[in-house]
């Protein structure tokens, strides 16, 4: 099979040999990748593979012990504010202030982002994610699925060029998860956003991601389009590939030994 041609789109996020050690254990071990403008890149791996550590390093919440990070061609740590203005983040596991109403929370973020017409933008995005009816609810009283969608509205508010989505469908029912995947894809294509996307749901990944990286013990063990990865493995589905990597740390079966 011939190798895929190099991707000539602008690189908007890059890790070079990113390493993060915790008490002598490497959660990330010389992890390198590039995310291009207009691309959705899935970051996959079993529990403990290093995905959250990678996201936290990219968000500046964890300092790497080695390697370099760049966004829009700029070193991340020296240009944090400039980069954050062009980026956003949503996680199923981070909560907005619970005592505020949903609309108050979103107005606060809209002001932080300096939006010119915050109410209009918030109304548009709430409609897109079908949560207009939640505007006057207390944020801390929302269900997990409702707050995930409020978080997504927050993440789209500043029209980010770079978006990090950590398990955006984790607590959603299948109907809402399907709608959220479609909205993410629609907004991503319309605005040509680059998205780094984590999920344990392979249906999500196959529908949303153009390319995926599998991490195992902080190292890349496999990368490519979901279709190519399955085709090049001995597994029938991406879920089978995931299980094989989680259990064996590799994708390809050893060829049977000749007698
Ligand atoms: N603050 C910390 N202190 C010590 N070890 C940590 C810390 N954070 C992460 N680790 C370890 O680093 C490794 C990678 O963890 P990480 O949370 O990045 O995995 P993950 O791929 O996000 O897993 P999950 O799918 O369960 O969220 C694990 O072995 C974890 O125990």
From TrEMBL:
Record-level Gene Ontology MF annotations: ATP binding; ATP hydrolysis activity
SUPFAM superfamilies: P-loop containing nucleoside triphosphate hydrolases
Pfam family, one: ABC_tran
Domain of life of the native organism: Bacteria
Keywords recorded for this protein, A-Z: ATP-binding, Nodulation, Nucleotide-binding, Transport
The keyword NAD is annotated on this UniProt entry: no
Residue ranges of every copy of the ABC transporter domain listed in the record: 13-242
Family stated for the protein in its record: Belongs to the ABC transporter superfamily.
Record's protein name: ABC transporter ATP-binding protein
Gene symbol of the encoding locus: nodI
